[in-house]
Write a structure and sequence with these properties.
The chain has 122 residues and is of the alpha/beta class. It contains five helices and five strands; from the N terminus they run βαβαβαβαβα. Helix 2 (39-49) packs parallel to helix 3.
């Protein structure tokens, strides 16, 4: 049987149940997924895990998902980034990132698993 390389995905959400659930769905769909429960932890983990994709909540306590994504892109320039949020404040943060030259895909919470998988495979 040929050894297929599974895309590596880092899932970040300060709500552990959401991060763990998304990671479980991704694993069942053929991805290698790991979780982090803060932006800072995600950056620490990314150095050793070297994910192909980052899926992150935007509004988190220590480091918001947009700032984490910007720092992640500096660390891993080829990483695919998908943000999600259920908060209205996200629009302001996205606008600020756009003004600085960063463009990110965003999904609204709650994230439907099929929508997530379609975005990752698309």
């Amino acid at each position: 049987m040929p050894n297929t390389i599974r895309p590596k995905v880092l899932v970040v959400d300060d709500e552990q149940m959401i991060a763990d659930t998304l990671a479980m769905i991704l694993k069942q769909s053929g991805f290698e997924a790991r979780t982090a429960y803060s932006g800072e932890k995600a950056l620490e983990l990314a150095e050793s895990f070297r994910p192909d994709m980052l899926i992150s909540d935007v509004i988190m306590a220590d480091l918001n998902g947009i700032d984490a994504a910007i720092r992640m892109r500096a660390l891993l320039p080829e990483i695919k980034i998908l943000l999600f949020s259920g908060q209205a404040a996200t629009a302001d943060l996205l606008e600020k990132a756009r003004a600085e030259g960063y463009e990110f895909d965003i999904l609204a919470k709650p994230v439907h698993p099929q929508d997530l998988l379609n975005r990752l495979r698309g």
